[in-house]
Amino acid sequence: DEQTFIAIKPDGVQRGLIGPIISRFETRGYKLAAIKLISPSKEHLEKHYEDLSSKPFFPGLIKYMSSGPICAMVWEGRDAVKTGRALLGATNPLASAPGTIRGDYAIDIGRNICHGSDSIENAKKEIALWFKEGDIV
Ligand code: ATP
User: Which biological process annotations from GO are given for this protein (predicted)?
Assistant: First the structure.
């Protein structure tokens, strides 16, 4: 089955949103295949966001992502990458529809609560970056 990498960013963990976010994926019908809390190194985060390294907001993004533990997860099921992104909502929470995670819980693009892989190829890369093979059931 298709797998995607979903992460609850430091603001989401700090605000107590791990439960509600997991609940949305579970009730939609996805299966949790791996989960851990992690405080990743700066190098790890720079690798995760390497495609954005030239953006003006990159240093702030790395700082934000380093500001507390992250809940890293692998979710599995039909069309998990595309539907996972739909559950999260648009990157800019002000453009996220109500009913999506960002649309219900966020207003700031620099604190948008969660991450989801944007393609099957990137999902594979991100899962390999954040998890060891034996961690995934
Ligand atoms: P994510 O990869 O977190 O799921 P995304 O793929 O929807 O987000 P990207 O364009 O890859 O969006 O941006 C990655 C992250 O960088 C965003 O989720 C957000 O936290 C941050 N970001 C993007 N654009 C901006 C911006 N203009 N100002 C501040 N932060 C930004």
Answer: CTP biosynthetic process; GTP biosynthetic process; UTP biosynthetic process
